Amino acid sequence: MSNLVLDVKNLDVTYPAAGFGKKPFKALHNINIQVGQAETLGLVGESGSGKTTLGRAILGLAPVSAGTIEFLGKDISHATRKDRRALSRDLQVVFQDPYTSLNPSMEIGQILAEPLQIQGLGEAEAKRRIAELLDQVGLPSDALNRLPREFSGGQRQRVAIARALALSPKLIVCDEPVSALDLTTQARILDLFLQIQKDTGVSYLFVSHDLDVVRHISHRVAVMYKGEIVEQGPSAQVTVNPTHPYTQRLLMASPVPDPDRQEKRRVERKHLLEQQARELQSQG
Amino acid sequence: MSTSTAAATHGSAIVRKSLFKRLVANPMGATTGVFLLLVVIIAFIAPLIAGFDPAATDTNNLMTAPGGAHLLGTDSAGRDVLARIFFGAQTTLISAVLVVVTSIAIGVPTGLVAGYYGGKFDGIASWIANMLMSLPSIIVLLAVRAALGPSIFVSMVVFGILIAPGFYRLTRTAVMSVRNELYVDAAKVSGLSDVRIIAKHIFTVVRAPIVIQAAMISGIAISIQSGLEFLGLGDSSMISWGVMLNEGFRNIFVNPLLVLWPGIVISLTIGSFALFGNAMRDALEDSQKISAKNKKRSDASAAASFAVAETEVPADADKHLLTVGHLSVGYPQGDGSLKKVVSDVSFFVDKGEVLGIVGESGSGKSQTAFSILGLLPSNAKIASGHILFEGSELVSATEGAISQQAMTQFRGKRIAYIPQEPMSNLDPSFTIGYQLVRPMTEVLGISKKEAKARAIGLLETVGINNPERVFKSYPHEVSGGMAQRVLIAGAVSCEPDLLIADEPTTALDVTVQAEVLDLLRDLQKRLGMGMVLVTHNFGVVADLADRVVVMQYGRVVETGDVRSILRNPQEEYTQVLLSSMLEGKTPMTMLTGNAKEQ
Q1: Which of B 173-192 lie inside 8 A of A, CB atoms?
Q2: ipTM metric
């Protein structure tokens, strides 16, 4: 793969001990992932699996204790804040909670202007770019002078997406960007993500606990379990015919919206769990 | 840089403007604000309006009564009292400003740094703050006077240092609560320097509490300053209210009025600062208070709406386990109107049947569930309709609010509840065992021993492998899935006829959700319970429900058998909801360029 955007090799993240005499907490162990240009890597796992930590490590918000994170061919695993400022042009983020990811006392216009100003864009140019962004994420232009609390969850997430897009980044880390949203809103926001990728060729590292969401948006999927990646491959394979026992359990656990098909799935899930228990016994 | 600071001040101006409006709208804020403004103006223009030299003695006019040329009379040296009050305001305000500026200059920056970075600096700064707070300030001030002379301004600066820990702690706590907010992370990702993150994103949060605290501290500063001078520890050659009080007190038997005038201005000023601080806090809280007058009006309008909407109890109500008929729930608003969150909702649940209520946020599904349980907030009004349990009335509009007495007959005994957030529904300070046993001894009237045996049996029933250990555990020692099992055990402990489950699996991981759904289905079948399942997830509905109610904006959109609703929805909204499901859809990934080749 020649035009690799992100290349994570043997990454470990260890949080220092929380108190005297306590062991440091190893959140991630030996992570290897790659994201190509205009590609979406879905990262799926349950709470505590380390999927969010991986996203945060790439953004420089979690301590890297071993391994490397290469972004556009440059090692950024220990980038300083000054390096980050240069990096932010190409590496951006959309967080899960649209309620706390926007400063409640700043107007939408100011929120969107912030990344542009850091990069030294002039006022007129910033204004033009912000108007373009609002249009791109489907927000009315009068949103500029309003505060985040005047918007619904879905609209706030649009603002967060616009902020991430402001500098035309190469990679956006999306940390559960749709899980706080209603079903209909979720579908619209996912469509927006896809449309933006089509238009701009941006890559996504898309973190989610929802296998359906990940299947919908990702080209490739990595499954995380207890701080490690247990399975990785093309979306169609991992999310439909998984090989790792955990992914199989995850797939079977998600209920389908039809009573009869769900009943069938329940039976299949029961068989799967029994079979896995038997295998575990014969191994142990 | 300059553009960004301009933007920041622009933003705060908007906040301040609305704050100012709210402050003026509050009579307490307006009166005290005007009084304090008056004191400031008088201090500035004292030389213009005093009419007399406040230090000029006049031995011909000692302690004259109020009236005449000397409006408030003269003191023991024949000086004009009113002029001294006017000039004294200067000293008082300078003292207050000195204390506030010193304590803010020390407390706020250290608090910002300690709160944002934590670590060693935080440890040392907090230690110093604790030490300063443990010093008796009056004794320190006496020592300062002995060492540095009687200047009240020096004493005030020292007092400012002593009181700085108040600002330090306030700032530190406020900063700590926001430093992990996602918008701070987003700023870090943008490469903003720490100084700019603090100035732009964090300082806005602490600004309001600092202003309130400053008003309070000003009051305290004035009382300390006047107190010191009253005790004769100030500089008696200065013109200030405290010195006047001291002087008046020495002559209290000759002319008690000399104590009265400075006493009045001191109390009014201190009181105004304290009340102004309170008014500012109220204004910042921005809570929409319903005045007594408006409340009456909304009660009346609510009453009027039941009169219209009063409905006949259907004849077949006692055939169903639960009947909800034409239920409307609303919240009184500040302008006296009633904001309806549930309007005209009707459905029923039969014995042993699972009814799914589906909808998005704001659809009123949880409010409906809470009205069945009688757990609506106390300001909620049942505007119309009724809820019947086996034909007897749980809630009716004639009462307006829910009769808690009628509820206790059923709640916990025949109607049980499973909440959305398992962790916040267990009390962290009691063991799980205690929380299971207590309701059983209360409701069923069995002994503690019996209840314990039963609780352990229940924990086993809900699929907990080591029930003895979980029984002794505290809530924080178990996982979320385990906590939900414990709550389910608690809910079924009294073998209820009706179970209300409000998003019972939303907070859980998918694999744990599947297990909890299995458990619920199993228990529901085994105990023959009726169940109201509130959820936003059609998968969960398909898994458990027999019939479905679809809600939107507080109204029922569609009701029907689970298969007909999920397969052939009639209403457009249901169709939209179902089409938003991603399960089984062709992935929409537009395989572009490079990704396709991989």
Answers
A1: 181-183, 185-192
A2: 0.85
